[in-house]
Amino acid sequence: MEIKTRVPGMIQKINVKVGDQVKAKDVVAVMEAMKMEQNILAPADGEVTDVAVEAGERVRAGAVLMTVE
To answer: What is the pLDDT confidence band of residue 59, given thresholds at 50, 70 and 90?
Structure first.
């Protein structure tokens, strides 16, 4: 399952790496959008199989941040 952004912004922090196990609603990343920090949550339990962004990177709305399977 891909985790995507809803709005454009800048990735402030990535809290997971490939191979990490996550639970639904874990905060996997923090993004700044519209001058506010937004937590990016895991949609379901699983393993992080890909992290497509880095801290400090600007992303567009709909960008894939990571994959959880």
So the answer is: very high
Answer whether 67's CB lies under 8 Å from 46's CB. Answer: no
Residue pair 19/69 in contact (Cβ under 8 Å)? The answer is no
What's the pLDDT tens digit per position in 43-56? 999 999 999 999 99
**∠41-47-32 over CA atoms, to 5°?**
25
Count of C-beta atoms within a 10 Å radius of residue 65: 20
| Structural contact between residues 60 and 11, judged by C-beta atoms closer than 8 angstroms | no
